[in-house]
Amino acid sequence: MDSENKQRSEEDKNLNERVDKEIKDREEALKDLQNRMDSQNDDRNKEMDELRTRMMKENAFLKSLAGKPLSVYFDAYRTKAYDGGGEENLTFNGVSCNVGGGLDPESGVFIAPIGGAYIFIFHVATHDNKKALLSIRHNGEEVASIFDQNHKDNHKNSMAGTTILLSLKKGDEVVVYAYTGTWLADFPMNHYTHWVGLLLKPSEEAIQEFRDSAEEGNFEEVPAN
């Protein structure tokens, strides 16, 4: 009898140990599962926060772009003949448009408000019995020229012009420079002289600047004149 009780007690002990071990293993498995679920939830929450932040930045970027002009462009003209003798920047009497405010017609200087690829177009009418020698200068360096000579036996005005593409950085200067002896024909209603500039595509640096400004909440407006 004592032997049977001892055996039964041993079996009960072994059973209790197995049950305790099974309970402990299941508790550890449940705890591990809970930890994995918590980690996955944390990852999902982090992803949602990152997605929310990206969307807010994109919205701010689009909002900043909406407050800017679609491009930068100008068209300047003269209303009277040029006989200033040359060796100076050509100036202009008016502008039909100046979006971005880059051109100062009184000084003739265009300062790029946005970096990117620009096209510039310039054309003039030569004065009777005079020559026209002008250049387009980028930051003081000559990048294109116009030359036309109205000979004595011609006694007619002629048109001359040029077109050039330039890659500009923000703050770069572009001017039309008149050399010695340049004369140009212009009248109030004719506007023979035209100086045109147009931003074709902003540079990657300009786009990144827009994005950085939007993310910082600094919406710098480019004036639309």
UniProtKB/TrEMBL annotation:
Keyword Protein transport: no
Alphabetized Pfam families for the sequence: C1q
Entries under SMART domains matching the protein: C1Q
SUPFAM superfamilies the UniProt entry points to: TNF-like
Subcellular location: Secreted
Cytoplasm keyword on record: no
GO cellular component: extracellular region
Keywords: Secreted, Signal
Domain C1q: 67-206
Region (Disordered): 1-45
Gene3D superfamilies xrefs: 2.60.120.40
InterPro entries in the cross-refs: C1q_dom, Cerebellin_Synaptic_Org, Tumour_necrosis_fac-like_dom
Protein name as annotated: Cerebellin-3
Natural source organism: Lepeophtheirus salmonis
Lineage: Eukaryota, Metazoa, Ecdysozoa, Arthropoda, Crustacea
